[in-house]
Structures are given as structure tokens and as C-alpha cells.
Design a protein that fits this description.
two-stranded antiparallel sheet, mainly alpha, single chain, 108 residues, 5 helices
Length: 108
């Protein structure tokens, strides 16, 4: 999910680079920490990017599973040639489908 969010942030033009770290605690649905690093390339302030991310994306584990449709049997495809940087429709975390929403919330 962090990759999906970072790709959408970059595709929306909020930064040229984006790294996201999400931390969870056992028994707590919402993340205990969400860290954003724009590596000095942000077109908007980092605190605004974090605010937008938390508004747009539901980061509870069950919501992530549903949003990325992770319960499909895609194990064979993900085990061959890696699971990042692929354009097949099964790799939902590679989509940049939230760009318009992010741009609108950022005022771009």
C-alpha cells in the first residue's frame, strides 16, 4: 500500500520522489505511525502531503486488502519476475488511479 500511495503522490506532482513508512501495532487497526519523506523534492509542504494521504487512503489492514483486492489467487504471477514494476491488471498496487483526487485536495 505504501508503494501505491507513493506512486500516486509522485504521479500527482506533489513531489518527484516519495518514500512512505507505515507502522502498525498488534490489535490496533489504524497505523500507529505514518512517515512521509519527499527527499527534498516536494512541490507542497510535507505535512500537507501526509494530511492528504490520511484523508484519501484508508490504511487499516482490512481496508487495504479490500482496496487492493488482495484475496485473489495471484500467487503464481507474483512469484515469477517479482511483484513491483509490473503493468498487468492483477498488480493493483502499481495503479495511479488516485492522482486526480490527490491533486484536487492539494489545490493543484
Amino acid at each position: 500500500m505504501a508503494r501505491h500511495i507513493a506512486k500516486n503522490v509522485v504521479a500527482a506532482g506533489l513531489a518527484k520522489k516519495c518514500e512512505i513508512q507505515i507502522a502498525y501495532a498488534i490489535g490496533v487497526a489504524h497505523p500507529v505511525s505514518v512517515m512521509i519523506d519527499l527527499m527534498g523534492t516536494g512541490a507542497v509542504p510535507k505535512h500537507l502531503v501526509k494530511k492528504i494521504i490520511l484523508e484519501v487512503f484508508d490504511l487499516r489492514p482490512a481496508a487495504i486488502i479490500e482496496y487492493l483486492d488482495l484475496l485473489r489467487p495471484i500467487y503464481r504471477k507474483t512469484s515469477a519476475y517479482g511483484h513491483f514494476g509490473r503493468n498487468e491488471p492483477e498488480f493493483t498496487w502499481e495503479k495511479t488511479n488516485m492522482v486526480d483526487v490527490i491533486r484536487e485536495k492539494a489545490g493543484l
